[in-house]
Amino acid sequence: MACNLNTVFLPHRISACGREPVSSKTQGFCLPSSPADGGASLAWSALSHDSVLATSGSLHLSTTITRKSPTQTLIVTEERKSTTAGKFGRYGGKFVPETLMLCLSQLEAELKVVLHDEEFQAELATALKDYVGRETPLYLAQRITNHYKNSMGEGPEIYLKREDLNHCGAHKMNNAIAQAMLAKRIGRKSIVAATGAGQHGVATAAACAKLALECTIYMGRMDMERQSSNVTFMNLLGAEVRSVDGSFKDATSEAIRHWVNNLDSSYHLAGAPVGPHPCPAMVREFQSVIGKETRKQAMEKWGGKPDVLVACVGSGSNALGLFHEFVRDEDVRLIGVEAAGVGLESGKHSATLATGEVGVYQGAMSYLLQDEEGQIIGPHSVAVGLEYPGVSPELSFLKDIGRAEFYTVTDQEAIDAYRRVSQLEGIIPAMEASHAIAFLEKLCPTLPDGARVVVSCSGRGDKDAEMVLEHI
Ligand SMILES: Cc1ncc(COP(=O)(O)O)c(C=O)c1O
Fold this sequence. Notes:
The protein is of the alpha/beta class. The chain has helices at 40-46, 98-116, 118-132, 142-147, 172-185, 199-211, 221-226, 228-236, 248-261, 279-287, 289-302, 317-323, 352-355, 393-400, 411-425, 431-438, 440-443, 465-471, and strands at 12-13, 51-54, 61-69, 72-79, 87-88, 91-92, 138-140, 157-162, 190-195, 214-220, 240-244, 266-268, 308-312, 333-341, 357-361, 364-368, 404-410, 452-457.
């Protein structure tokens, strides 16, 4: 199927009472069609009822979540044979031009096959073990634990889920290798991706090298300067890195344009659980290994579950990767930490769930950072990987039903945490992960003695060292 449309997914602000986007600036591109799965009005009505349906679990599970009280939810899961429409309550969907529908449907169909294909799963398991280096340790951070003990010597136990030890230094590799394998299986020769902090770009470039696929990575000009070591790695791995005026959101639009112009041969390798269905469910699925391992390791280490899970939220892939396995365990708290930048009141932040409003962006409905006109507000964070104006539809849904909690941490608090962990544990966490770790300052004094907290150490922080040294 040839396609030469210069098309991009455009932002839409959703009015408080409306069912339709109220503004849709064209910015020189063609407009997306209405939700192709026809599920928007169903989704809109969903939250006004006590019961909502979400496409949670694997693609073959549906999860009915019934609100018992504002703080309590009852979650029932049932097997479903048919495909889902990619909805998480009102969020998600496929707000795309008709020209992309066939591609997305093919991808959804192939994804359903590979999730149950023994040969693919065995190959993926081998790649995760021998290439990525899984499983990653669940590490008891004893000195951080001691740091948070009160005067009585009481406090929670802090564990780090060491995604920084993955090949290429972040959780991004879990998804990149799986999708690159999927792309190869459906006959694509070249991969296009966008990256912010560069971790997804490096992971994608490495996976492409391993699988002999061509690789083009789009990255914002400023981000290339801020994360220059990752640009060097991408080049060394054989990828072509193309700079884009703007930041990650602009790089994403450019990568999608590239893909739309080459639908026959190329594959857009999404690193974030955002965009049109099936991308959010697919990325979540390929990252869910983090939570599955955590459950097993917790059982081995203390014979139970964690009490609290904490992860930073940029677009949501490491958070969902950790949380997903535990969504139905009501006794496990799920905490997402967003970037408050230089302060929420300054407007210079990336706290989409804390301050955003619902809208449609890059093909799906979620919370968004947007102004009164429905135009996207540029996000800010000291952690480049957290700078995204949208967020996962699934996390948007978990926020609305009260299943996950979301808080924010400023640039300075994250920098302090980066240094604290480096000096207390000899582990240099990515600035993104430092946001999750920084939240321990507020969380730990509120927890009972012996509570077990697992924090996602989503990546390693060498890429951020220079910037942190400049701040000192
Ligand atoms: C190490 C690391 N952690 C976290 C993130 C944030 O992304 P997400 O919210 O999708 O996990 C990024 C993004 O680049 C990253 O590089």
